[in-house]
Specification:
By secondary structure, this protein is α/β, with parallel strands linked by helices. The protein has seven helices and seven strands, in the order H-H-E-H-E-H-E-H-E-H-E-H-E-E. It has one domain: Rossmann fold. Helices cover 35% and strands 22% of the residues. A seven-stranded mixed sheet has the order 3-2-1-4-5-7-6, covered by helices on one side. Helix 3 links the parallel strand 1 and strand 2. It is globular and about 40 Å long. The structure holds S-adenosylmethionine.
Length: 192
């Protein structure tokens, strides 16, 4: 076995990937992580999905690929330029709601919503407002993080923030947490 992704790619993956490269956006999730996101998405038929940090829609395209037709995904980013790429390739999917908003404002305005699956890939819901995001996770719901191993683009001091976040997750009595030294460093937690 190796880590290569041999299965079909999402319909628009190559075009989003090319547009992402052309835009200069360098924060997209890697293909192994995206493959995992799709696999896990398929465990929640009819599910409500939340992605915090859409970027250009690369990870979004994989989550959508794993979702069934009865599922719904809200994906939030505050950068209209990257969201425009996601909208170009994924905006016609009726299961997807792309929201241009600040993560803090969006979480505060939607804290009563409940989700089966949260991919937290921006500050809010991960390093900030963790409690608020986890309170939106249903029992049995999946909370997923990537980029938990040191990355070349981490600013000074970020390593310590990552350690604190992992410790905070490990200490929670309401989660089962699995940490994987794989891809960019993945955490999968489920709500008890
Ligand atoms: C790691 S990238 C997301 C990558 C995306 N999930 C993918 O795999 O392609 C983080 C995203 O968070 C967004 N972001 C940064 N600060 C934000 C904020 N305050 N509110 C909402 N989104 C924010 C950035 O615009 C960026 O697109």
């Amino acid at each position: 076995m190796n880590e290569s992704v041999q299965q079909t790619l999402p319909q628009h993956y190559h075009r989003i990937d090319q547009a992402t490269r052309e835009s200069g956006f360098t924060m997209a999730s890697d293909i192994q992580t995206c493959s995992l996101l799709r696999t896990l998405a398929s465990t929640k038929p009819g599910g409500s999905f939340l992605e915090l940090g859409t970027g250009t829609g690369l990870s979004t395209s994989w989550i959508l690929d794993g979702m069934d037709q009865e599922s719904h995904l809200v994906s939030v980013d505050n950068d209209k330029a990257v969201l425009d790429i996601a909208t170009t390739y994924l905006g016609n999917d009726p299961r997807l709601e792309l929201v241009c908003a600040d993560g803090e404002a969006w979480l505060n305005a939607n804290k009563d919503m409940k989700y089966d699956y949260i991919f937290a890939d921006t500050w809010h819901g991960k390093y900030l407002m963790l409690e608020e995001a986890l309170s939106m996770l249903k029992k049995g719901g999946l909370y997923i993080l990537d980029d938990m191993l040191p990355q070349p683009n981490w600013p000074d001091g970020h390593q310590e923030k990552a350690h604190k976040l992992v410790a905070a997750l490990d200490a929670r009595p309401d989660l089962w947490v699995t940490k994987q030294h794989w891809a960019t460093g993945i955490i999968i937690a489920t709500k008890k």
